Amino acid sequence: MKSVTDSFLSLGHWPFARSFGFNTDILATNPINLSVVIGVLIFFGKGVLSDLLDNRKQRILNTIRNSEELRGGAIEQLERARARLREVETEADQFRVNGYSEIEQEKWNLINSTYKTLEQLENYKNETLQFEQQRAINQVRQRVFQQALQGALGTLNSCLDNELHLRTITANIGMLGAMKEITD
């Protein structure tokens, strides 16, 4: 019976049984706080981020489809230009004696114009894709920042009691006063 009593008495001498209080060791608490904040952000922001990325993906796919349609139109224009080129070449055979150089110049102008149009359409497609991707990234960043800020403010508001709040305000006022004295 004595050994049972001794075991209960030894429980009272735990080295971990200290009073509750704030841990002011910055090196020990910051990694814990950061891991909690990051975990909360990942847990709550995962669905929103996934939805944003899915919406963004659909917009980008629509933009790609539109660009492909424009490309198809450009290819049709190229085919028409090639058909026109064949017509011009036929006419060139007929009028070779009268103005071969003039017809040749028209042919190259037509080809150059078509290639420039294709390059412009391709550049437009690439610029549109880059713009949409950058806009999506900026929207995601902004949304994550807002959620992190709201979470941090919620955590701060739930953790601060009146006494701690007044001490923080007093300490900040003291620091501002000291900064003012230094600048004066």
From TrEMBL:
The chain crosses the membrane at residues 32-49. PANTHER family: ATP SYNTHASE SUBUNIT B, CHLOROPLASTIC. GO terms for cellular component: chloroplast thylakoid membrane; proton-transporting ATP synthase complex. GO terms for molecular function: proton-transporting ATP synthase activity, rotational mechanism. It comes from Clinacanthus nutans. It is found in: Membrane; Plastid, Chloroplast thylakoid membrane. Belongs to the ATPase B chain family. It is a single-pass membrane protein. Residues 71-98 form a coiled coil. In plastids the F-type ATPase is also known as CF(1)CF(0). This is ATP synthase subunit b, chloroplastic. Keywords: ATP synthesis, CF(0), Chloroplast, Coiled coil, Hydrogen ion transport, Ion transport, Membrane, Plastid, Thylakoid, Transmembrane, Transmembrane helix, Transport. Component of the F(0) channel, it forms part of the peripheral stalk, linking F(1) to F(0). F-type ATPases have 2 components, F(1) - the catalytic core - and F(0) - the membrane proton channel. F(1) has five subunits: alpha(3), beta(3), gamma(1), delta(1), epsilon(1). F(0) has four main subunits: a(1), b(1), b'(1) and c(10-14). The alpha and beta chains form an alternating ring which encloses part of the gamma chain. F(1) is attached to F(0) by a central stalk formed by the gamma and epsilon chains, while a peripheral stalk is formed by the delta, b and b' chains. InterPro entries: ATP_synth_b/b'su_bac/chlpt (IPR002146).
